[in-house]
Each structure stands twice: as C-alpha cells, then as structure tokens.
User: Fold this.
Amino acid sequence: MRILVIEDDARAASYLVRGLSESGHVADAAEDGPTGLAMALEGIYDALVVDRQLPSMDGLELVRSLRRQHMMIPVLMLSAHASTQQRVEGLQSGCDDYLGKPYAFIEVLTRLEALMRSRDPAPGNLGSFRVGELSLDCAARQVTRQGKTIALAYRETLILEKLMRHRGEVVTRMMLLESAWDYEFDPDDNVIDKHIYRLRRKLDEGFEQSLIFTVPGIGYRLAVAYDMAPND
Assistant:
C-alpha cells in the first residue's frame, strides 16, 4: 500500500512513517491540512492516516472536503479527543475509522489492513491478490503462477501489486513510480523499464505467454483472461 500520514507532530509522523515503511508499505507525510489535502487529491494513495487537530485546516474539514470531491479513499483518523460524541463526529465527517491517542503502532497497522480488506474488490486477504493464473502474496514477496513459486524483490512486489489492482487497465510509468518510491526519490529515466524487465523475466520463465504487456509511450498492462485465450 501507499499511505499518506497527515500529522503536524513531527515525532508522531516520523514514528508512523517508519513503522509503515518497515511493514513493507510506501509512506509519505504532510504536516498541515492544506498540504495533506492537496497530496491526497493527487489520487496516488491507498489510504490516509489523519490527525484530527491540524494547522490551517483540521482533520474533520479535510475529510469533508475529500468526500465533497468524491474521493472515497479509506481514512483512519487519530485523535486525543476520543469520547463517544467525538468519535461519532469523526465518522459522520466521512472517516472510515477513528482511533484514540495514545495508540500502539500495531493497532494503526491492523486497522488500516481491515479498511483495505473492506475496500479491495479482489478476493482474499489484504496483501493477497489473484488475477487469472497469477497469485501474489505481498507480505512474503512471492508469486505463484500455475503452481510455480516465484520470489520477488521489494520494488517488484509493489509494481506487480499496482498492476494487479488495475488488472486489464493501462498503468502509466508515473503511476508505477509513485506506487513504489517516495516523493524524495530522483529516478533514472528508465528505472521503471528496468524493474519491469526483471519482473517479466521472473514471471515468464518457463511459460510461453507473457503476462505484462507494453503500451508504447504510456506504460504497461497486466494480462487478463481474454489475453490468455488461444487464437481461433
């Protein structure tokens, strides 16, 4: 997952970003409401962690603004104000879950995973995807194709996850880049092509049919059922 943490407490934000990164996710941070809203509206995140008390625009207004613009990204709100009434206010503003402070990181992670399970159209648990003959276990960084197990590197897992989430659709190089690297990364011109090349070699070794198609000048597309059908 790619997760945006919107938290004005630098220490708390660093704690969450570090924990999410160590758990195998890509995490970015914003320190105020307007910045967090602008980043969230880019549409590159799978989930948001939002502090209720933010400078310039509080967390409730940030979430309301997202919902008014039809952004239905899952939101976990964190707050020191966690009475029943305050939790209700958070949920009514459009948050999907509300967690009181102090909290343990494992609870933040577990709640995010639960939110993603409820939103993910693919069958199976969070971090587990299946498209045709291909299954991906993100936590183990492992793919199975027709019973053959294939080990992946970290970035390869994130790129394949993005392709599987958008199965059958064209995924641009920029979308793949943003799914696997943070904002401060300065990429080589062909870094995505290099990773796709290695990913293809691993997925296609021993098989006649390639699973990742190049869309010239745009990006890549993962094969779906009709791509695998024999020609008449």
About this structure: The longest strand covers residues 2-6.
